Amino acid sequence: MEFQLDHAKDILRRTPATLKQLLHGLPDEWIVSNEGPDTWSPFDVLGHLIHGEETDWIPRAKTILEDGESRSFTPFDRFAMFEISKGRSLHELLTTFEQLRVESLQQLEEMNVTPELLAKRGMHPELGAVTLAELLATWVVHDLSHVAQIVRAMSKQYRQEVGPWQAYLPILSK
Amino acid sequence: MEFQLDHAKDILRRTPATLKQLLHGLPDEWIVSNEGPDTWSPFDVLGHLIHGEETDWIPRAKTILEDGESRSFTPFDRFAMFEISKGRSLHELLTTFEQLRVESLQQLEEMNVTPELLAKRGMHPELGAVTLAELLATWVVHDLSHVAQIVRAMSKQYRQEVGPWQAYLPILSK
Lengths: 174, 174
Prior knowledge:
Two copies of one chain form a homodimer. Chain A is mainly α.
């Protein structure tokens, strides 16, 4: 499937509501349990998504448009959310993510991204040259992959509870 | 996390709305694309979930309560949805799943499941003895695992589009 800006926005604009539908009002056990040591709970993932809105996607898109390959992106701190989320409720995180995503999409709109701009290159500190289209496609896949992570973490809370069915549920051993 | 009927219902009742939020109104490319030969698209998964409501979860719960281990469950046809979904729109499938899930949960309510009944055993045709609690926990994990499958199938449509970021996105190679 070829990258199309409209297709990407179709996904990006619905992720906050999908997560709200999936998580809002659930008992804490579903929200704060992770997959084991050094893994993330749904609560942790929300904080990570918020941090992405604040420091990753739109800021990097701007860097590409303004500086091209001449300035590397600021490295993204994948663990910053542990500080960010401290003492906040899931409801607050869901609402914050929703607001930030609306703002991000508004900023994307204002960039008036043309096919030429989609092909413009920036410099990733580790991966080297990347295009704006690649950044935006990554944003989409990043959203989807964290939805997958959240439901996987939730599934694993019932790893023992499914009994012999464990053999039919590969998600429990991923 | 120990199985609790209320916790399970908390997940089961929200899956249709989560999927609606995730999928309703998306361009067809996101809906009908799969992960390659012999894999399922989001559209296929919806049909499979519908078939589960019709023939798997509540019917098996009834078999356990009525026949215990004396009668094996009817084997579940994991490919029946290809016939079921033919010619139907995603909107129809989402609505059908939503209605069937409401009915399933209503039927579950009417079973007045007690802790004693949760421990009651039935006979799986391949796995042997299983309890009602295990069946219900499996229903929950089955929902979550198909949400994961749907977002994975969607992600993979951008496998090429993310360029070098592919290295950072394990979901694309699962």
